[in-house]
Amino acid sequence: MRKTVIFIILILLLTSNAHAVRIKDIASFDGVRDNQLLGYGLVVGLRGSGDSSQVLIQIQSAVNVLERMGLSTNASSIQLKNIAAVMVTAILPPFTKQGNKLDVLVSSMGDATSIAGGTLIMTPLKGGDNQVYAVAQGSVLTNSFAFGGQAASVQKNHPTAGTIPNGALVERELPNVLAGKTTLRLNLDKEDFTTAARIEAVINGKFGSQIATTTDPGSVILKIPESYANRTVDFVASLETLEVRPDNSAKVVLNERTGTIVMGENVRISTVAVSHGNLSIVVKETPQVSQPTPLSSGGQTVTVPRTDLKVTEESRRLMVMPEGASIGDVVRALNFLGVTPRDLIGIFQAIKASGSLQADLSII
């Protein structure tokens, strides 16, 4: 018995420590973020699976490429089946340096049936400010195929979109948003008053002074100490590893399509009685035929209706859940009733309608 109690205490201690997470996992510094890049290009070298002649954009693009290479041609006099017009996207992480490589995603724009095996020719990638930050080029990998004839076809995965690992070279660096700063702003991934206050307390306790202040539940303002002047990276590194226990609001998420139910640890209910049972009625028609005996002098054949009626009601107990019951109490009580996940959805909706569920109910 004593060993069991010690084991339970150890589990509770480990569970409480597991709630603490690093600041870097729940917040990020203002300006330190990814940037989206976009470009338009051509994929060449396709085996007749490119855009058809009805899509004129790839023909005009091919003509422009040839003219830049010193070849003069007429768009109306060429027919191209081995090229496809594509949109190229990439993510530029913060502090990426010139010459670093990025993964790119290539997606067909026209009616090409497949871009597998094609090669993306040099494509500038621009940011939101219309400046070129990277240039993409390379072989497209789709991990798919598509073949077919007039009466049948076969396809695996998605052949009109693919990737080019390390297919883009960074040509322009993003400005350093931390250089020369005396104050920083830490933005929480999920706004919460309690979590912001806990981050403020942990940081001030770490440095022994009031360097962190909160003005709203979504951010914490940090004043860089004099001991970290011109050492912003060291200051940020010392903050990221600090552990904080984030606070979350009580919420129950229901998915009616899959029968999935997810409940947070803070879910509580007021005193409520729950009874769940199913009533099933089976009606079966089995008509019988009555006819005269052989060699009889009279009579006629008659169909006699017969109905079998069966009523079954599952017996369920009335379960009373006391006020302040935790999520574990709720699950154990509902499992005692023998309900299925889809039944749980209806039960939680009824508990919420009665005003006894002290949590936000979200149905997706």
Give an account of the 3D structure.
With 364 residues, this protein is of the alpha+beta class. Strand 4 (84-92) and strand 5 (101-108) form a beta hairpin. The longest helix has 17 residues, at 2-18. Helices cover 22% and strands 35% of the residues. The protein starts with a helix and ends with a strand. The strands form 9 sheets. The protein has a 6-stranded antiparallel beta barrel with strand order 3-4-5-10-7-6. The chain has 3 domains: 35-170, no CATH class; 178-244, 2-Layer Sandwich (Ribosomal Protein S8, Chain: A, domain 1), CATH 3.30.1370; 251-286 and 303-363, no CATH class. The protein has 7 helices and 25 strands.
List the helices and strands and how they pair.
Elements: H1 2-18, E1 21-22, H2 23-26, E2 27-29, E3 35-44, H3 57-68, E4 84-92, E5 101-108, E6 119-126, E7 132-139, E8 145-148, E9 153-156, E10 161-170, E11 183-188, H4 193-207, E12 212-216, E13 219-223, H5 232-240, E14 243-244, E15 251-255, E16 260-263, E17 268-269, E18 272-274, E19 279-285, E20 288-290, E21 302-304, E22 307-313, E23 319-321, H6 327-336, H7 341-353, E24 357-358, E25 360-363
Parallel strand pairs: 15-25
Antiparallel strand pairs: 1-14, 2-11, 3-4, 3-6, 4-5, 5-10, 6-7, 7-10, 8-9, 11-13, 12-13, 15-16, 17-24, 18-23, 19-22, 20-21
Sum up the structure in keywords.
7 helices, 3 domains, 22% helix, alpha+beta, disordered N terminus, 364 residues, six-stranded antiparallel beta barrel
